[in-house]
Specification:
With 341 residues, the chain is mainly α. It has a domain of 115 residues: Alpha Horseshoe (Serine Threonine Protein Phosphatase 5, Tetratricopeptide repeat), CATH 1.25.40.10. Helix content is 76%, strand content 0%. It contains 19 helices and no strands.
Length: 341
């Protein structure tokens, strides 16, 4: 998420007004992006000066950037106990979101909004949280507010477009995504999202053109190619069948082997092409990466039945039934900021 780099920039620029400036040796390490070394010096300084709130904020930022969100939450809490600040609330919101504590993250963002109601990044993260919590209408409202505050920010238009897409407001979604594409025509994810809207509007030729444009743009960062490749594969499968889709799904897997979705759809395509062993391998990979999708277990159960592996078929059918019940009982959660939704 782009928010992390924004926070570190905002934090460093605001730190000079806090109770103690950043020592020169620590600032030099931060400027050089030597965060591990900086963290050790900050820890020593915090131990020597326990009321240095900026030190805890810096620790929280470094720990967030390195994926240690439990530690980041602890450090940010220490900072706001000493002095409440926008930085502290934002870091807490990010750390709790990444630990799936969505309600807590929303509460910290509400505190941040009280302090800075004109700061669009608060509403950006809040909109993502609402989507993760299955509150899509609330998500759309706060993204609209964010766009009003910062209309030149292409990513806010993108996120608003994604929330509108999930709400089924396709024309408005298309308008927001087109605005994002005008402000950042080099974003592969914007063109992929536009392709999805085109499909839902039954403009399949335009959808394919948008996916191809995304592929043209994503080549330098090959992981970014997985989403448009997956979407092109799904489109090809619907129009031409599994053989046309297989190579596209396989390319998506190669670019993002840690993403469950391409493995699953490649597995389904292989099964349709009578490659049952290949299909099983891919579906098993999908479940290893994301075992909480009921559909994955259902399809694998059907495949095991065809392979005469009755016990495994029963196990996955049981998991399917349990997960499907959970999915019916809870609001759908959507990560509109990424392609994993």
């Amino acid at each position: 998420m782009g928010l992390s780099l924004l926070l570190i920039s905002f934090l460093f620029s605001s730190a000079q007004t806090t109770s103690l400036q950043i020592p020169a040796n620590i600032q030099a390490l931060l400027d050089a992006h030597l965060y591990a070394e900086a963290e050790q010096l900050i820890l020593a300084e915090v131990e020597r000066t326990p009321k240095w709130d900026v030190g805890y904020l810096l620790l929280a930022q470094i720990q967030s950037m390195t994926g240690r969100y439990d530690l980041a939450e602890r450090s940010a809490l220490s900072a706001i106990r000493l002095r409440e600040s926008l930085d502290g609330f934002m870091l807490l919101a990010l750390a709790t979101q990444r630990q799936n504590k969505i309600n807590e993250s929303i509460e910290w963002l509400e505190k941040a909004a009280q302090r800075r109601p004109d700061y669009s990044e608060i509403y950006k993260l809040l909109g993502v949280n609402y989507a993760l919590g299955g509150m899509l209408k609330e998500s759309e409202k706060v993204f609209t507010r964010a766009v009003q505050l910062d209309p030149s920010n292409w990513e806010l238009h993108y996120l608003l477009g994604r929330s509108l897409y999930e709400l089924g407001e396709l024309k408005r979604s298309q308008e927001s995504l087109q605005e994002a594409s005008l402000r950042n025509p080099s974003s592969a994810k914007v063109w992929t999202a536009l392709g999805q809207v085109g499909e839902r509007l039954y403009d399949l030729k335009q959808a394919e053109r948008d996916y191809r444009r995304a592929l043209d743009l994503c080549q330098p960062q090959r992981r970014d190619c997985a989403w448009p490749l997956l979407q092109m594969g799904l489109l090809a499968e619907r129009q031409k069948g599994p053989r046309e889709a297989e190579s596209l799904f396989r390319q998506a897997v190669n670019f993002r082997p840690d993403w469950a979705k391409p493995h699953f759809y490649l597995g389904k395509a292989l099964v349709a092409l009578s490659d049952l062993d290949g299909g099983r391998s891919e579906m098993e990979a999908a479940i290893r990466l994301d075992g909480m999708k009921s559909e994955y277990h259902y399809q694998l159960a059907q495949l095991y039945r065809r392979l005469k592996e009755t016990q495994k078929a029963k196990q996955h059918l049981t998991q399917y039934q349990a997960l499907a019940k959970l999915e019916r009982e809870r609001k759908p959660t959507i990560n509109i900021g990424t392609e994993e939704d």
